[in-house]
Design brief:
Length: 263
Amino acid sequence: MEKLPFKRLKGQTALITGAATGIGRATAIQMAREGANVAIDYLSDSARAREVTKIIKDAGGKAVAIQADISREEQVKTLFRKVIETYGTVHILVSNAGIQNEKAVDKMSLEEWQKVINVNLTGTFLCAREAIREFKKRGIQEQVSRAAGKIICISSIHDQVPWARHANYTASKGGIMLLMKSMALEAAPHKIRINSIGPGAIKTPINPKIMKDARAREKLGQSIPYRRVGEPEDIAMAAVWLASDESDYVTGTTLYVDGGMGL
Ligand code: BGC
């Protein structure tokens, strides 16, 4: 038996988009704990992004914070260039950055539709494209992983569960599902694995009410089959597994982490 504790992502570099807060933050910390060098992409909250790098560095890990708007092609290219300059390559992409903007369809402007699609869906495409390019160029490094690279899309139970007043969001997440599956099919022969995680209700800033209001959280928790709201760490643990060789035969699938909410 190997010596414990075994760091499952040792020697690998993980880029996590939208990692200043919420699921991205927890995933960056968890991946660093498993031995990965992490790159924390953030849009505007530099103080929080630096806080995450500090937590990781104080614990002896490696982390860098990089500002980029993942819905912009040039910024995504620069983001990947900076990550590769810092760590030599990238092995894991967690495409996490996402937004939602509640509106009835008949009240929704084209701009409100497009913004959500641009960040959630086009942002996933832009980041995945750069990651696949790097994975293919580098190939497998047997000492770190059986795969040439791994992509984890943070989607939602709403990649298949409809949601009134969120047509822009559900369309983006439904789009991510088939984008993820098509890319997984295409990239599998290159030993690249691409999967999604479909979180349910998680205590993150995307849900300000359940973040701030313990009563509201408790009430929502009672409506979930597993009788609690999820923590960012619930998703981070699943992301670590999908990034590690423990899931080496898993590609093109969505892992729902929702306490049964989608049921
Ligand atoms: C949304 C949350 C929501 C959850 C369950 C997530 O995708 O971002 O706001 O609570 O789905 O409906």
